[in-house]
Structure formats: C-alpha cells, structure tokens
Amino acid sequence: MRQLIVMLLVPILLAGCATGPRYDTHQVALDLLPATVSENPESYRDNKVLWGGLIVATHNLPDHTEIEMLSYPLNQAQRPLADRPTQGRFLLRQAGYLEELDYAPGRQVTVKGVLAAAKQGQVGEVTYTYPVVEAQDLYLWPPARHAPERTRFHIGIGVIFGR
Predict the structure, then answer these.
(1) Which domains are assigned to the chain?
(2) Which one of 12, 52, 97, 111 counts the least CB within 10 Å of its CB?
(3) Cα–Cα distance measured from residue 70 to residue 89, given in angstroms and rounded to the nearest whole number
(4) Residue 78 binned pLDDT confidence (cut-offs 50, 70, 90)
(5) 86-132: per-residue pLDDT in tens?
(6) Is residue 137 within 8 Å of residue 128, measured between CB atoms?
(7) How many CB atoms lie within 10 A of CB 83?
(8) Residue 120 φ/ψ, nearest 5 degrees
C-alpha cells in the first residue's frame, strides 16, 4: 500500500516542478546571437533560433504583433537570465493579436522561430538593425514572485500572540 501511494504521488510532485517550455532544439542554431545576426542579417535568414529576453515594447499592427526584445542567455529551463550580459536586441513577430498589458515592458519571453528579413529602427539616437524572428512557439513567463515580508504559514506547538 505504501509503495502504491508513493507511485501515485511522485508523478504529481514532479509535474508540479515542471516550469516553462521545453522546446525541441533539433535544427535550431543555438550558437546564433541577436548581436551577431544584426551585423549581417541576410546571411542568417531562414535559420531557426531559440532566443529569449525582456520585453522593451509591444506594438499591435493590423495582422500581427511586434515585440521589441532585449536578449539574454537562456538557462536550462530556457528562461532568460536577466542578470547576465545582454546579447543584443531583436524583434519578435507573432501572427494575430497579443494583449499589450500581458506582454508589457520588463516581462520575460522565450521564442522559437525563424529569422526573417531584418528591420531598421532606432535605439535612442542610434540606428539599429533588428533581426526579426517569426514566432513559431512563444512562451510568456509568469512574473517573478517576490518573497513576502513575513511568512504566513507556521508549524509549531504553543501559543502565538500577534497583531
């Protein structure tokens, strides 16, 4: 009976630990960085990439949504590591409409897609060549949770007086 309970609980507990996407990286150019592609975008056109980062801005256009991204390396769970050095900027294109309040500046995104024709834009006063990723798979990471100031759950024996 004990083994049966353990066998039933283990998959449930493991499922609770699963986080984010696990995109298949077969035929994905994992060594390409947005800054590298930006220097010579036509030579990398049609390559599949897996990139992620922080949203800078989101714009809804008539047939797609365009998201300006600041790229960061990905961890093993394919989540952007925003505490590492940036890897350049890119534009993410998703067919259809994405809610700008959900895809707000500062949110983390991971995208798997194909490099399309680059687009010229501005970063401050500087002209910038943005690699463009046509999204095939897109994952918006949940906002990071901050630890509460005080733990609300306690285990113990005794009497607690509080406010």
Answers:
(1) 26-140 (2.40.50.140)
(2) 12
(3) 5
(4) very high
(5) 999 999 999 999 999 999 999 999 999 999 999 999 999 999 999 99
(6) no
(7) 6
(8) -80, 140
